[in-house]
Amino acid sequence: MSQYQQTADEFLSWLKGQIPLINHMGFKPLNYDGQSLEMGAELEPNVNDKGTGFGGSLATVATLCGWSLVTLHLREMGRDDDVVIRDSHLEYLLPVTDDFVARTALPDEETVTGFDARMKEKGRARMDLVIEICQGDQVAMRLSGSYTALEKRRG
Question: What is the pLDDT of residues 25-62, one digit of tens each?
Fold first, then answer.
């Protein structure tokens, strides 16, 4: 097992303790490689009255995927900061009819370096991510989100 996969397994366990809702969403093990993150979920607990993926569940998984990638990145830097979603835009492209996966990746190196520098200097930084909900190679939903990291106040 790679260092990143062990980190992902420990992170998911921690996350389930922090956000009880996700214990009921059929999450599968995370796939994390230090640059990108995949969060898979089962359709059954996230289904709507039409038998397809409930939009609120898809939005939750996508939002959480982006939040988790930023949080994991900060932890890789040895930081324990708060992360919040500041703004998001959702595009529902296709109905979700089976188990699905949310995918996202860190932006280009220059953007990440700037984010890291702002966190060190100001204790606050923003990262924009695109998260896609996919079934196989098909993108069913896309979330464009802006996540803000904030240094925790000590004391």
Answer: 999 999 999 999 999 999 999 999 999 999 999 999 99
Reduced to 3 states, what is the DSSP secondary structure of residue 42? coil
DSSP-derived 3-state class of residue 59: helix
Q: How many CA atoms lie within 13 A of 18 on its CB side?
A: 9
* Residues sharing a CB contact under 8 Å with residue 117, sequence separation 6 or more, in sequence order: none
Tell me the two tokens of residue 70: 């930023």
Domain tally, the chain = 1
Strands (E), 7-112: 31-32, 36-41, 82-92, 100-105
Surface-to-core class of residue 128, CB atoms within 10 Å of its CB (0-12 exposed, 13-18 middle, 19+ buried): middle
Domain of residue 104 covers 3-150
pTM across the whole model? 0.94
DSSP, residue by residue, 96-116: --S-EEEEEE---HHHHHHHH
